[in-house]
Amino acid sequence: MKYSKELIDDLSQKAKKLRKDVVISIGVGVAGHIGGSNSSADIVAALYFHKMKHDPKNPKKPDRDRFLLSKGHVAILQYAALAESGYFPVDDLKKTKEIGFYLQGHPDVLKTPGIEAGTGSLGQGLSIGLGMALGMKLDQIDRKVYVLVGDGESAEGQIWEAAMAASAFKADNLVAIVDNNGLQANGKITDRFDSYPLIPKWESFGWNVIEINGHNMEEILTALDEADMVKGKPTVIIAHTVKGKGVSFAENVVGFHNGMLTEENYAQALKELS
């Protein structure tokens, strides 16, 4: 499918805005997950502003697509997408992680509109997503469940239990997206707990595998549309990304997995993303 230049440009700009919102959410002098948030921003923009059927005025509408952030530590990215979609005021992002506020470090399904499940205990999101996908099949709801998984998170055994179960139950309404930026909290994936190669692993578990550049909006949209055509098996999109994308001093720097911004680099990040 061909996508218009206007659509590609619009979604790319929305991704840039999400990255700026992430920086604003972190602020100065407080650690925040800029790395994995920025690497996933193009994917999340494509989902929230184009692909998914969802309604900010009715977050629990049964006939909706679901998005689950299995790597829940990058909640600030999902908050940005929810705010920009109209679930709550964008200005509230500045209060993220304040004690008692409804935007905490990990997603809270009880307090935050638009959150489908509490996530962040790594490895659990894909299992939750599979349960939702199978429930939707029972209820004859013809929508998708999208689960964003980290490449570091892929070392968790529960990811592969869920992958095996999803294949066994032919959950073709489940789409996993692996943010393959090559870095986890303490270093390179290959140096810490090497979960590669991802593609043959997912294929061996019976999944349809699509490999893309996770910063190429046309490739993202094409992959999401291709997933709609697959019947009888779940789909995983392996998205090759850059940790900290869009902020020069944070790109491919493991320290910004959960890094603290000074006043100087906070201003620089906002300038680069403006």
Could you describe the 3D structure shown?
The two termini are 31 Å apart. The protein has helices at 5-26, 34-51, 75-85, 125-138, 157-168, 189-192, 198-204, 217-229, 263-272; strands spanning 31-32, 66-69, 145-150, 174-180, 183-184, 187-188, 208-213, 235-240, 259-260. It is globular and about 50 Å long. The relative contact order is 0.18. The strands form 3 sheets. It has a 5-stranded parallel sheet, with helices on both faces. Strands 1-9 form a two-stranded antiparallel ribbon. The longest helix has 22 residues, at 5-26. It has 9 helices and 9 strands. The mean pLDDT is 97. It is an alpha/beta fold and 274 residues long.
Distance between the termini: 31 Å
Please indicate the percent range of residues in DSSP E strands (runs of 2 or more): 5-15%
How much is the average pLDDT? 97
**Relative helix content:** 40-55%
- How many beta strands in the DSSP annotation? 9
Number of helices: 9
SSE blueprint:
Blueprint lengths: L4 H22 L4 E2 L1 H18 L14 E4 L5 H11 L39 H14 L6 E6 L6 H12 L5 E7 L2 E2 L2 E2 H4 L5 H7 L3 E6 L3 H13 L5 E6 L18 E2 L2 H10 L2
Parallel strand pairs: 2-3, 3-4, 4-8, 7-8
Antiparallel strand pairs: 1-9, 5-6
Helix pairs in contact: 1-2, 1-3, 2-3, 2-8, 4-5
